[in-house]
């Protein structure tokens, strides 16, 4: 779904990605690109094992929904997820965590406690935030 997101959204892509996205959108405009759920996607058959591949009509004929009008196709989840991603980007405040960690470290230093703080992912930020709540009491 990552490539589809690139095709339907404008962003600060690297030059390589931006050039490819522009070329693809020039040939086939983004309104024509839709997400196909995994259970209806012939390409996903390969991940289910090759024994099913040759006997499955999905591989040879594609999903039957393509024979129906587009109004009957599944809802495009990408449109919903895009707005959620943008909203989450705006909600992240990295300095909040760094300030809290600094305060917590000073308290631990005075108490003679030593910890190694690292924030490489949202999981680590959550762990750091929880640790801060624990040390502030």
From TrEMBL:
Q: Which domain of life is it from?
A: Eukaryota
Q: What is the lineage of its organism?
A: Eukaryota, Metazoa, Ecdysozoa, Arthropoda, Chelicerata
Q: What is this protein called?
A: Integrase catalytic domain-containing protein
């Amino acid at each position: 779904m990552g490539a589809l997101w690139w095709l339907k959204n404008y962003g600060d892509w690297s030059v390589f990605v931006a050039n490819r996205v522009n070329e693809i959108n020039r040939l086939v405009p983004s309104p024509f690109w839709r997400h196909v759920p995994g259970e209806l996607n012939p390409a996903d058959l390969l991940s289910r094992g090759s024994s099913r591949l040759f006997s499955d009509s999905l591989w040879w004929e594609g999903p039957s929904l393509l024979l129906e009008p587009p109004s009957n196709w599944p809802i495009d989840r990408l449109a919903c997820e895009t707005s959620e991603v943008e909203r989450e980007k705006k909600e992240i405040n990295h300095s909040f965590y760094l300030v809290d960690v600094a305060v917590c470290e000073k308290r631990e230093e005075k108490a003679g406690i030593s910890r190694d703080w690292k924030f490489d992912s949202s999981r680590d930020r959550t762990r750091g935030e929880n640790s801060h709540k624990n040390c502030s009491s």
